[in-house]
Amino acid sequence: MPDFMMQQQQEDEWCWAAVAVSIHQFLDPAKAGEWTQETLATAMLQKLGAIPPGIDCSERPDLCNMPAGLDTALSTAGNLSAPGCLQQLQPSRNSDL
Q1: What pTM did the predictor assign?
Q2: Which pick of 19, 52, 66, 80 has the fewest CB atoms within 10 Å?
Q3: What residues in the chain have per-residue pLDDT under 50?
Q4: CA angle, corner 94, sides to 67 and 8, nearest 5?
């Protein structure tokens, strides 16, 4: 089994992209080049309507540097079958704050 290698996020708000791409590469090393943080951001943000079609986050990361949900990023990368299920974890995680 390969070691898990966490990518450094390429933009200030792209922790979701770094985590999702790192998990994708760990779970399916044969498809490690399938997603980059830029391609995932482009696909996901266009699907959400957060950026218009034709914007490429590798060329215009300034237009794509925004927070997004990890569950949606994992789903877009093909590693989560039910977007929204991670939201159920948030209340219990924050209940100790």
Answers
A1: 0.80
A2: 52
A3: 88-97
A4: 40
